[in-house]
Every structure is written in structure tokens, then in C-alpha cells.
Amino acid sequence: MNLHALRVFHSIARLGSVTRAAEELHISQPAVTIQLRNLEKEHGLPLTRPQGRGVVLTEAGQWLAAQADRLFALEANISSSMEAVRTGRSGSLKLAATYLPANFLLPKMLARFRFDYPDIACTVLTSNAQTACKRLLRYEADIAFIGSMRTFPPDVRCELLLEDELAIVATPDHPLVGRPVTLSELVRGTTFVLREPGSSTRDTLFALCRARGIAPPEAALQFSGPQETIRAVIAGLGVTLASSLEIQEHIAAGALAKLEVPDAAAVNPISCCTRTNDRLSPQAEAFLHYSSPIL
User: Fold this and answer.
1) Which domain holds residue 104?
2) Is residue 293 part of a domain?
3) Which of 15, 79, 218, 220 is the most buried (most CB within 10 A)?
4) Are residues 220 and 256 in the same domain?
């Protein structure tokens, strides 16, 4: 079908006049008439008939006008939707994240972002640091928020989002709360609740012990998840090294307290990562403006 002729006919049908259609389309009246006749010839049916100084639609013309309404409405919708995608107002956004940013940073960022961009569909894929990095490089994610990783592949560009303080925590009634204690004293005289081997906080604790020539604490109590570990400490089973992001609500509620261990100071870097020398989608560009944490 000749879409130009259909567009001309659509104007005629909507305005009820060849003359007014010509004015709207900024073409001559004979050119409008030629397009109408070509369309009628193509389908072998009259589409209009004269009435007064204008035209009315035949039955075939009414049906075709209704289809043209649908077609050109769809065209307008496609154009506006593509423009929204191009400018980042709609479309999709895929984020990869490790546990801490996925649970304690991204929800607040996404709440602000979705308020301004309600038509962008957002997906958060939570995994360990290595998997999050791979998802970014495989184009399975637009941006990755990665904690505890200090060395990245050359194809990954990173900006430090924040340094999450690691602290040793216990119940508020623990006898060591409120006075300074060394890591050596703590390891010798206190039961530690440990994370599983491979956990970044466990690795950090053991690295602190090695740096000070201290034997690491024995795994008398070990849990394979951060929340399980923290709840064990709240239950009075010992102390642990934990992220400030994880424990802030428990400290505010009076369920946990930080111990003063000056020689156990450590931070967990959380980075915002994108692909090096790769242009971000408009949706990802828009989200980056919301990627400052609210703590």
C-alpha cells in the first residue's frame, strides 16, 4: 500500500475536504486529488463522494479511514516511545550488585530514580563481586555496584562510591563495651562469630590478625550469611566484624554496640562500575545522577 497516499486520504477523511487537506499537508489541491485517485485505483473502490463544498466517505472509505486512524496513532506512539527511550525517559535498566549495595544502597537510590523515571523498568541482579563484574562485561548489566573488590579488570571503569567502615560489634551489655581493647586481647579472650571461608569480612579479619602477628580466632561459631551472623551476635553468642551498613539499624535499635578496637580499623570499598570506553545507555546515564548513597 502507498502510505503517502493513505496519509493524504487520512487527512481528507478527518477534515472532510480536499482543499483543507491540501492546506494542512502544504501541498497543492491537484496533488491531493491525484493521491486520492491513486489510492482508489489501487483498491478498486471509491473512497469518497462529493457533498456540497466537501466530500463524505463511502462505506469502504469509512472502513479504511478507521484503519488509517489506528495505523497513524500507532506510528505516533512508536515515535514518542522511541524518543522516550532515546532520552532515557523509558526503556529498561539492569543493575548488577553485591550484597551490601543491593540491600543497603540501591533501594534508596532506586526510590528517588523511579519517582522521576516511572516508565523505566529496573532489574537488580545480586551476586558475588566476580559474578557482578562478569555480568557487566557480558552486557547483562548496565552498571555494577561492587563491594570488597579492590582490583578490577582493565575493561571495567570504577569510581569509589563510599568506604563502608568495618566494626567489631557485640551486645550492649558485653563487658568490653565502652573501653578500648586491642585486637590481640579480643582474639585471646572473646568468642568470635565468624562468616564462612571466602567471605570478605572474614578475610579482612584474618588479614588484620596476620598484620599484627596474631593467630586468627578459631571458628567455634560459623555462619554462611551476614544476617545470620549478626543475629547470632545479638543473641549473645560472641562478637563479629561487620559492615556499618549492616549494623546501623541494629545499633540504632539498641541491639548492638561497637567495640573500641583501634588496631582493627578497616573499610570495605563500594564502587560504581561501568565498562571502559563504552557509551552508557540514556537510562544508565540518568541513573548515575542518583548513585550517591543516602545513609
Assistant:
1) 91-162+270-288
2) no
3) 15
4) yes
Q: Provide the whole-model pTM.
A: 0.71
Is the Cα dihedral 214, 219, 224, 226 positive or negative? negative
Cα(48)–Cα(59) distance, integer angstroms: 9
- pLDDT tens string 240-260: 999 999 999 999 999 999 999
Q: At what angle do helices 18-25 and 29-43 cross, to 10 degrees?
A: 110
pLDDT digits (tens, 9 = 90+) for 5-41: 999 999 999 999 999 999 999 999 999 999 999 999 9
Total domains in the fold of the chain: 3
Compute and round to an integer the Cα radius of gyration of the chain.
33
